[in-house]
Protein: Glycosyltransferase
Organism: Sinomicrobium pectinilyticum
Amino acid sequence: MVLTLSYIAIAIYSIALLLIFFYSLAQLNLLFNYLGHKRKNDEAPKFNLLDPREIPYVTIQLPIYNEEYVVERLLENIAKIEYPQNKLEIQVLDDSTDESVAETAGQIAKLRETGLDIQHIRRENRQGFKAGALKEGLKIAKGEFIAIFDADFLPDSDWLKKTVIYFKDPEIGVVQTRWGHLNRDYSLLTKIQAFALDAHFTLEQVGRNSKGHFINFNGTAGIWRKECIIDAGNWEGDTLTEDLDLSYRAQLKNWKFKYLEDVETPAELPVVISAARSQQFRWNKGGAENFRKTVTRVISAKNIPFKTKLHGVLHLLNSSMFLCVFVVALLSIPMLYIKNTFGHLDWVFEVTSFFIASTIILFVCYWFTYKNIQGSGFDNFIDYIKMFFTFFSVAMGFSLHNSVAVLEGHIGKRSEFVRTPKFNIKNLADSWKGNKYLHEKISPNTLLEAVLAFYFLFGMYSAISLNDYGLFPFHFMLFLGFGFVFFKSLTSKA
């Protein structure tokens, strides 16, 4: 019986490791695409904005929900956008349920007095959440092109001039820009989030887009062609990542996406772990929901090549890698005892080398994206090594929380769209304490994360007692990761 269970555990462990390895190979392929693209010149057709006849009408949509701390900053910033007033409309899609509604209305009234075409659009309910608000605004939008910004994004004044020009190509349905980070250096948590997002917005977005593979509109800091939204079936609120959903539906209908790595749109990162948790849960569950909703259409599509299908499937499975990591972590300690109990199974554990190879591949891939933003040189490389392993540890510490999200997404369990609280924090002098949108309730996963921290401490003890140190670094990182997530979850409350 014990041997049979051991074989089952080995099989599950090996499959999870192989899936992680395949994911890392896909990332390596994206790295080659990324480096190749950096050597090319962009010769895309562009609108000549000096010719009034070529200036398109643009609607800026600002979906907000209870954004008391950042809405004033948002509206002041958007009002500075440099674009002909007769070709610009701003829609504030306000689903708020608190006193911020009156403050927002007052500020909009003042901006309207300056000649700005800005509308305060309210709904009776939050049906469809953000997707529903965007869809409602689209019904009356005057613009041919729809720029979208979440409440914590602060585009530069010339942002429209740098982006809308690419729609001269009639096949372009979306132009997406790279996210920047206003508070990257606020804390270890913000540094880790920035590190992960930078990899997505360089390696992944450029790597896919440069070869015509599917990418995703990132929910904000980008522009849609209105015709593309309608043709793809409009916004739908049946997943938590409506942006990924519409992106795939549009590209399956042959619309092209344009990604601009050189145009940075700064935004605020969550500064407390409860806010990061809600954001991570929504993104990872939404990714799994979109896999469930879309993967069959991607695989069966006749209009896209095999390699694009493969990258599309892996892209939709991105969040599921957390589940693979969690399975590998959970089974790693039983594997240690199986290895030292059944000598004839020693050869099986060579599969563990796949995890080492995956880590090395990701280490190399992330270095190229890191140095592109932070710079190269020996000192930066040392900083990178520390940041990579810190990120890796904390990402594994989030694996339980994110695995729950992924499983809920795959089985089709519905849940409410939970917004990420905003703080209006840029530097160390600013404080998040007292933010009324934070929940004091601790996540139910937090206690389990404490148990898992001690579980991997036991793994380290097991390595010493069995004199088998192969998994010791892995268990040490898991101990640190789960310990960090538990400690921050316990202490970072309003």
The first strand starts at residue 58 and ends at 64. Residues 2-35+319-491 form one domain.
